Task: inverse folding
């Protein structure tokens, strides 16, 4: 017996661990499935379509130069990059962090780049 089918909430990831866009996709697919009577295979196909669309949108955004973005989005992008940098540095040991900092500084500011 598959208890995951009988008790689905006990076997799913906590909502906080599922990205918002995936939760949104799941909600959207559920609405489409209910409204149009989608089969399980159709619902899975819709999930794939939505995921592919999101990946295409991200590819377009990634290809854009930061200067092409509105100033508010430029600021958000810089803040996101700064947070990633802080998180990356937190993973490194003191020695690794020292080397990383020295090697990742732009040329002319004491680094190799």
Result:
């Amino acid at each position: 017996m598959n208890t995951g089918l009988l008790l689905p909430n006990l076997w799913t990831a906590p909502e906080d661990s599922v990205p918002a866009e995936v939760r949104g996709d799941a909600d959207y697919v559920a609405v489409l499935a209910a409204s149009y009577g989608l089969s399980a295979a159709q619902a899975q196909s819709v999930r794939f379509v939505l995921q592919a669309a999101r990946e295409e949108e991200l590819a377009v955004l990634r290809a854009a130069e930061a200067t092409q973005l509105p100033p508010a989005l430029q600021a958000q992008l810089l803040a996101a990059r700064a947070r990633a940098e802080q998180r990356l540095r937190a993973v490194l040991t003191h020695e690794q962090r020292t080397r990383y900092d020295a090697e990742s500084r732009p040329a002319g500011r004491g680094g190799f780049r």
Q: What stands out?
A: Residues 1-63 form one domain.
